[in-house]
Amino acid sequence: MQPGAAVGRAPENVSTQNRFPVLLSIYERMTEPAVSLQSDAPRPATKAPAARSVVLPPAGRELRLDLFRGAALWLIFIGHLPPNVLTWLTIRNYGFSDATEIFIFISGYTAAFVYGRALTNQGMVIASARIFKRVWQIYVAHVFLFTIYLAEISYVASSFQNPLYAEEMGVLDFFKQPDVIIGQALLLKFRPVNMDVLPLYIMLMLFLPLILWMMVRRPDMTLLASVALYAITWEMEWNLPAYPSGTWFFNPLAWQLLFVFGAWCAMGGAYRMEGLLRSRITLTICFAYLLFALYVTLSWYIPHSGHVLPRFIEAWMYPISKTDLDVLRFAHFLALAAVTVHFLPRDWAGLSSPWLQPLIRCGQHSLEIFCLGVFLAFAGHFILVEFSGGAWMHFFVSLAGVVIMSAAAWVFSWYKRATSKMPTRPDGLDTGADLTGGG
Amino acid sequence: MKTIVGLVALVSLVAAGETVAQMPAPVTAVQCEVQPELLTSESHLNRVTNAVRADKKLDVLIIGSLSSTLPGADGADRAYPARFAAAMRQRLPNETIVVGSEILPRVTAEDVAPRLAALVQKHHSVLAIWQTGTADALQSVSPDDFREALDEGIKNLQGAGVDVVLLNPQYSPRLETMISLGPYLDNMRVVAQQHDIPLFDRFAIMKHWSETGTFDLHGAVRGTEMAKNVHDCLGRALAAFVVDAAGLKASSGKFSDP
Fold it and tell me: A135 with A204: CB under 8 angstroms?
């Protein structure tokens, strides 16, 4: 399940049954000559065959993306709380990859969907400007969360003394130099616990104009370049520096692979992979790999199940790096995605079920809900520590967080509906902003 | 502010400790249960077994940072290395037990790894208990670098001819949102498994105590009494763990009656 394998997949597998939704219309628009900025660029080598226009994807938004991004947001929130009963719902307990992979992939997919359209309709300059505006929003959100973190740590510093933790209290020493620590936080080098995802997202979005610029011209070459960067990063052990020491927890140079792969899928790649995805062999391999990952992962959590694998395989496999998006994690995500796409078609009736609406709504406002989730995790920790919560309190805090996130998403949806009834802007510039996860 | 409180606590402890320090600290009767699976290991301490059986002597060196100590005049007697020594002597009354400790504050695994062989040679140890991870987490050392340092340190220790036990960071609910221990705990578990050496899971044990209410690790406790009790329990649990991993007693799972 290497992405390279998918690249080589010939597009003749195109069928009229459009099970995997892909933005073919965008792909076609991108290959159209009538794009101002593209006119002086080399024309794409392959013009879309006329037959393709028959299989335009259904209009409207892809609810499955929203659903799974919402699920990823819930799982990230639960994962940020101290472990409790609900933690067993998180997928990281059942395989190599976790909610972060889902979040980054879908972010790449939707970002390419929205800003790719902007690029073809409005040109490179406007599209880039819109992307940078978005980057700024995410950056401000990150700084806002950091402020809350500062307040929390200051409170602990002034209220908590326990001789048992003399060494651990050393973490507060950094805050004796607020100028340094705030400066490093603004440079995204100092990142408190659980605040690693947004800096990654910021870096990926920062390079989105370049990615899209390449993607509209040579989608497969762009993906190949991404794979190459990933491979070189592993080989050369590249990463960005962090403060006070070490490197970024999510290495953007490695994680870009998932983001670019998401973008590539949105730009027609998923459509071309459809034949591959529907094949029984693929499905069998995916299932086998998922079961293998399940077996290995469970061996970590069930004490004393011993060595479940031959030593040489263990020596090759471990460690499974999250920082550098280990290829085992990436493959696990691919297998999970392939199986999901197979069993949940685009027109799956469940997508209109009222029970799934909270998830879908959360996915539709992902930046806001993500930030809210980080804040709620802080607040949840605070409640559990201050009121010394037991298992039930843990459960209640997790549940309350999910309910608050859903309610907030509902308010955001309501606001968007309400404002969209107002006279619309003639340029229609703001359409689709929520697709990237916020308005 | 912290310094002042610390100094005041130190002075008062020195004053109060004068009388206590005369006699060896008694084994307190604190009740602290540990899940049985955390007191046994699949990996074996063969050199420890041989030393105890053949030489009737066991030299242990605990290498750690500040979380292997307690403040105050009697801190050294009440911290877990001393309590571990006392519990070992109770478990193995016919053998000579010597427990030394090397405390290197704020030192990361990478810094200490090259020095480990010299340390165990200096102490003529048979068993090295390496407490690490906290300093690395505080300085957010890259988890990959941490793992490589663990790997190097364990190889150095084994090269020096000693058995190795890894001892992971403390569980601290209050500081959980400020110190990201996860990657360091995971790496210690993985590296221990790779080298087939026992890992004493201090984190999981303390977490269990916190969840069952054995100790209130959340609270802002200014006195050292609870810290001493925690260390006493840790020392006893560590002794049970080592005795089990060395296969020295059939009923080693029993932790409460040493």
Answer: no
Element (H, E) at B128: strand B127-131
- What is the value of pTM for the model shown? 0.79
Asked if B174 lies within 8 A of A244 by C-beta distance, the reply is no
Q: What is the pLDDT of residue B237?
A: 96
Contact residues, chain A, for B179 at CB < 8 Å: 168, 171, 193
Distance (Å, rounded) from C-alpha A359 to C-alpha A73?
Answer: 9
pLDDT greater than 80 at residue B16: no
Convert the pLDDT of each residue in A199-235 to its tens digit: 999 999 999 999 999 999 999 999 999 999 999 999 9
Candidates A173, A193, A250, A317, partner chain B, best to mutate (most B CBs within 10 A): A193
A107 neighbors A427 (Cβ within 8 angstroms): no
pLDDT in tens, B185-212: 989 998 998 899 999 999 999 999 988 8
- Residue B168 amino acid letter: N
Contact A34, A326 (CB under 8 A): no
DSSP code at position A241: B
Assign B174 a pLDDT band (cuts: 50, 70, 90): confident
Contacts of A322 (CB under 8 A, 6+ apart): A100, A249, A250, A329, B183
Q: Are A360 and A64 in contact (CB under 8 A)?
A: no
Q: Residue A167 corresponds to which tokens in the numbers above? A: 């060494």
Angle between helices A366-386 and A391-420 (to 10 degrees): 150
Closest CA to B33 of B239, B207, B258, B233: B233
What is the reported pLDDT for A170?
86
